Amino acid sequence: MMAMAEESNSRAHAHKPVFVTGATGYLGGRLVPRLLDAGRRVRCFARSARKLAARPWAGDPRAEIIEGDVGDADLLLRAMRGCGAAYYLVHSMMAVGPEYRRRDNHLARVFAQAADEAELERIIYLGGLGETGDNLSEHLTSRREVEAALASGAVPVTVFRAAMIIGSGSASFEILRYLVERLPIMVTPRWVGTESQPIAVRNVIHYLTACLDIPETVGRTLDIGGPDVVTYRQLMQTMAAVIGLPRRIIVPVPVLTPRLSSLWIHLVTPISHRIARPLAEGLRNRVVCRNDEAHRLMPQHLLTVREAIELALGRVQANEVQTAWSDAGPVPGDPGFSGGKVFVDPRSIEIEAPQRHVYQAVCRIGGGRGYYAADWLWRLRGWMDRLVGGPGLRRGRRDPERVAYGEALDFWRVTGIIPGRRLELRAEMKLPGEALLEFDVEPVDSSPDRCILRQTARFKPKGLAGLAYWYAVVPLHAIVFRGMLEGIRREAMKIAAESPAGIGAGRT
């Protein structure tokens, strides 16, 4: 009778939507399609609904997107009503310190209270693996505090604790890859000798999904990891072997602090020092599973470190990165550009190619292809940005052809998009002001094989430094932006010529 009751409860649970926070992030963006593939209905609660609109699964009738902030208790409660389980995949990775810890703790308590009032059946949370005690890094300590805050209500919490997650586009993986590729000799902190138990991202997603059907996971804390226990030094040597590079020379020294390590990671890799610091601090703790309960309850093939790295690199090389670390985070809105002096540099060019091919050429800028003209100036600007703490050019782009709202594109962020017609980029480089770069593609009425590309650079300066910056770079615009327009024109005509119908493809 008890088994029948559990089966009945499981079926009832499956009919209720699953509530997911963090769907715009690295793991949440992979979890949602997996839940849909498993036949679940999913209700995503996101700070920016537009960032999810371009996801392949956004049009699935079983997927519902609600825009809101996790800190808005009333809206959160209304969004949760009627759901069964809730995933809490919200955690600050941009910095450490009391302010961020208090914020994370507060949001978790708001979430627990709303889940209680909405009468949810369970909360599922992914935290950090690590030894317990007083010697945890500030980042792992914050994760433990979030666990406690989520468990402060009446709703049972399933906690998964993971160490480094290996997958294409993850912050940890990108740090590892860039360090190994760029530095044949490395002076490192002593933590390169600390043991860890990495896990492939596909194995993490399996655990997060499978637990919904395993009643024994309710209210449990489960350590998850791959089959290998390795040091970070061994991870780097494995990465080098997979890439086909010689063994790296690694010299650990005791004087490198997490702060200095994060600044070095910032300069060498695409990862911001604000993200690198909590990751670097976490590496000083031994992060190894205490038992294999998760694998016993939810068996699967666990990828070895080498298998996980090979798979992730294969995804990168095939341009099949599903989500990336840079996907998460807020997208600035337009109000910052209202009022005050705004400098405008408008340019346009007529192109003998269909509108869709011109737009396709526009969407190819950045990443490995560069900016069509004066790439050395763009690289110089990227290095200058890295030196002062900005993202520089190393974030690249997730896909070489397609862009979507909210995605990072080098040191730009896509803040406006109308497919086939308009692309708006906001600068995230370090600037004494705010900058936008807009592209508008307009057809010429007399011909379907001709259109006008309008390019507009806008800059709102902050103080005298902003004014000085604008007047200093204006002379370079003739080289950079005019050259970019000419490059887009050539690329568009090339795309049109290579299309099945040639230039005449614009006729319908």
Examine the secondary-structure arrangement and name the CATH architecture of the largest domain.
Answer: 3-Layer(aba) Sandwich
Give the full name of the CATH homologous superfamily of the largest domain. NAD(P)-binding Rossmann-like Domain
Number of helices: 16
User: In order across it, which strands form the biggest sheet?
Assistant: 3-2-1-4-5-6-11
Structural class: alpha/beta
How would you summarize what this structure contains?
The chain has 16 helices and 19 strands. With 508 residues, it is α/β, with parallel strands linked by helices. It has two domains: 2-325, NAD(P)-binding Rossmann-like Domain (Rossmann fold, 3-Layer(aba) Sandwich); 335-506, START domain (Alpha-D-Glucose-1,6-Bisphosphate, Chain A, domain 4, 2-Layer Sandwich).
Account of the 3D structure:
The protein folds into two domains: 2-325, Rossmann fold (3-Layer(aba) Sandwich), CATH 3.40.50; 335-506, Alpha-D-Glucose-1,6-Bisphosphate, Chain A, domain 4, CATH 3.30.530. The chain has 16 helices and 19 strands. The chain has helices spanning 2-15, 28-37, 50-53, 73-80, 98-117, 138-150, 171-182, 201-210, 232-243, 258-268, 273-282, 293-297, 305-317, 355-362, 375-387, 463-498; strands at residues 18-21, 42-46, 63-67, 85-88, 122-128, 157-162, 165-166, 185-189, 195-196, 199-200, 221-224, 230-231, 249-253, 343-351, 408-409, 412-418, 422-427, 433-444, 447-461. The strands form five sheets. The chain has a seven-stranded parallel β-sheet, with helices on both faces. The longest helix has 36 residues, at 463-498. The protein is globular and about 65 Å long.
